[in-house]
Amino acid sequence: MPPSRSIAVIGAGWAGCAAAVELAQAGYKVTLLEAGRTLGGRARRVETDRKLLDNGQHILLGAYRETLRLMQQTGVDLKQALLTLPLQMRYPSDSDGMDFVAPALPLPAPLHLAAALLRAKGLQREDKLSLARFSTSARWMGWRLHTDCSVSELLERFDQTPRLIQLMWRPLCLAALNTPPERASAQIFLNVLRDSLGANRRASDMLLPRADLSKLFPEAAAAYVVERGGSVRSGAKVQALRSIEGRLWQLDISGAAVGGTWSTYFSGVVLATGAAQAAALLHDIPDADTSALCGQLTAFEPEAITTVYLQYDAATRLELPFYALLDDPYNHHYGQFVFDRGQLDASQAGLLAVVISASGPAAAQPQELLAEAVAVQLAVDFQRPELGRPSWFKVITEKRATYASSPGLARPDNATGLPGLVLAGDYTAGDYPATLESAVRSGVAAARLLKRSAVQ
User: For a pLDDT cut of 90, what percent of the chain falls above it?
Assistant: First the structure.
């Protein structure tokens, strides 16, 4: 293999795996390097003292075209790997929430939204008119703002009712941007709504993973790379990058996977670590002015996501695969969504996963108290006392799950300005917040940028 066809991908999260697949498909010899033991980055499988769990519960959208394309390309059976549900926001029937679900018919936008509104329960006429007005105005605007603002300001500008904000907009904002509405970017939020509420039924479908997050795509991507002559090394941490005469990149790698310390050369590098790790590696490249780029990468404010797993008797089951929950932190109701893992994977019968986005304050509590509060919340919301008594619990907090998606946030391009070195990650410039699709799109864009530069 000529040196010009040898590429290192540093980081085997979803962005790195996407870049590796795109490059391997184009005939490059790819070496995928991951410092951790498990592939997937901030969306991966976690081995706990109880069972194998995910470090967070995810929902994909039918609009995640690049993620779904690469999953299929790497041999993932989408029908087996994902449970497809129509767009919905459904609360437990006794919780004073609402029941909003798009019809199963393949209606074009905005008819599917109109049908869902007509059938919605728990919303007054003024709430429904408020949502219809928002959708119509946003569509007329092309889902674009001249000047970004907070989601709260946007909702106020569009005269959204307090109940609709509580039941629809706030939970959607937290789930999609992992940032509270008062400090979340309205433009990024509109981009998400454009491809969910504002898209056709299939694009707005909600896709729930049946497999664990590492198996869902990263492990399939790794196998794809190996099948095409590449290699995958976990437990391999890149300590330093050096440019050799502007033609090659030298990587210093350490870890048990490489038997100590190892140096090797590549014609190109995809830097697909987290933003802070990328800044550290870029900062130490000799004779390279990366100060501006490093400044952007270190300016991101991390946001946490906490998932509280509660195990009950295997016969315990919710009526639906997932529900929205009315969160009220002041009254110790922290959960925002609950997922019945047994309806996704039979081996997890009786396991409920409760998600808390932007979870910094909640995660600061002792885990026992947080799990107890969440269990009591479920018992009250579903009017099922047995849900207040799980047999065991596990609290998993990903402290840097995403970055705060604030108004006007400057996100770096894939290009670094250094020949043969590109960035990939959910933090690079794009329409979406820090989601799996954002990461995958960034990985694909980084790989294509490297391929174009190789042709020139």
Answer: 88
